[in-house]
Amino acid sequence: MQRRQVLRLASACAAGSAVTLPVFAKATADPWLAEFQQAQAHLPWTLGYRTPAGDFAGASAQVSGHFPAAVQGVLFRNGPAIHDMGGRRYQHWFDGDGMVQRYAITATGVTHSGKVVRTPKFVEEQAAGKRLLEAFGSKWLDSRPVTGPDAFNAANTSVLAVNGELLALWEGGSAFTMDPRTLDTRGAKVWSPETRGVPFSAHPRVDTNGTVWNFGVSALSDMLVLYEIGPDAKLRRAQPVRTPHTSYVHDFAITERHLVFLLPPLVLERGRIHDGHSFVDSHVWRPELGMRVLVVDKADFSRQHWLELPAGFMFHLGNAWEDTQGVIRVDYVHAATPDVLYGTDRALMRGQMWPRPQYHIATALLDPARGKASQELLPMQAEFPRIDPRLTGRRHSHLFHATQSQPTHPGFSAVARTAVETGQTDMYSYGADHMVEEHLFIPEPGTSPGGAGWVLGTALDLKQRCTVLACFRADRLADGPVALAKLPYALPLGLHATFMPA
Ligand SMILES: [Fe+2]
User: Fold this and answer.
1) Full DSSP string of 452-474
2) 80-107: per-residue pLDDT in tens?
3) Domains and CATH numbers, the chain
4) Half-sphere exposure of 258 (CA within 13 A, CB side)
5) Going along 353-393, which residue ranges are E strands?
6) 371: CA distance to ligand 1 center in Å?
7) Ligand 1 mean position to 496 CA, how many Å?
8) Cα 268 to Cα 71, 220, 243, 280, 282, distances in angstroms
9) pTM tops 0.70, yes or no
């Protein structure tokens, strides 16, 4: 099959035909919405999963301390926000229409604005005043069949800045271009005519030379589509790679010479889509398959190595690098099962707590030449791992991540810096009444990779019912923030961020 045909196949519909759904019939009231509304009265953490009344036009934060020059610029964040519409509530956290948050940080203050990404799906549903389409984890009797990945693209997962362009990312379809100043949606990003509508994941990796590497999972055809994009935002290559089955792959890593994929044994069974299951519920946990590891040569995507690690689940990888012998070290956030995806991230939508997630840092050793792979688990709980971006694909020593789960709410309440070789950790706890979001490492200009920098991130203060933006000295997290900006309102909890310096 020609590459063009294969790529076209990747943009075809994974959930194409009309189905009969074994879910609740024409209910007059949505039980998920009713349960969530009841929980709001006594569970403070539900604040993070409410649907905001609309866009945030712009507000000044109350700032204490001083944001250093290195972090003056704009922090963009993305996450699911519009969970309810027309009296119906989504049944999975990852379903909500994406809202991009914009924190403009200057020497004199911080201002915030936020806007829902105007995907075709959101625009049509908003005009109708109700949900029309199924989502990643929700499907109703009257959901209209989707005609391709972008038909239910929520653009709700991450943001990428390339060549001055701001993209809102989802993992199953196209990126959407946003105006970085106004947050107006300009439209779906088309990298080339033949990749129009082909999935472009929410976790691209930006090489130290500015090259953007990414992948997309083609749910219909057991393929990963690999992308190489220049620093000028022009597509250099897009090429499909066959996989033994379609796994839930959310993230990947790069080294100087390779792309590294971990394929957890959460496998799509396409027949389940046609039996009426949502996209996520059409995946089946099959630990007997182990975790397949795919190492692809950056210079020639046809040069591939397949390895195997013990079965496990992950959303996020930290970083990968390879030594002079070609042995690759990769760290990722390991869970024994995908319970968070099916338990926590569903239950919270109806205001329920699920047992606390057990996510830990794993460091894996991959030896493609000898076909060997092994891993160790560190005791530290973690999610949203980030590194000094100057070390992407190079040897790194530390991960910056959220940690410290709480019995009183989902998610985490602290930010930490963990040495991946020793497991030693420095952390700052916001307190049990905070829910911590992703924190980025921002390098101090003029310093060398792995050197000085700042940690910049957000948290939801459940007691004061507001979102805060904090900046820390990266090597002294425990000292607490050097600057803290308090918004006059609470934002919905989101996922990933990017920073554009001033
Ligand atoms: Fe992610």
Assistant:
1) SEEEEEEEEETTTTEEEEEEEET
2) 999 999 999 999 999 999 999 999 999 9
3) 3-501 (2.130.10.10)
4) 23
5) 360-367, 372-381, 383-386
6) 28
7) 7
8) 41, 9, 12, 8, 6
9) yes
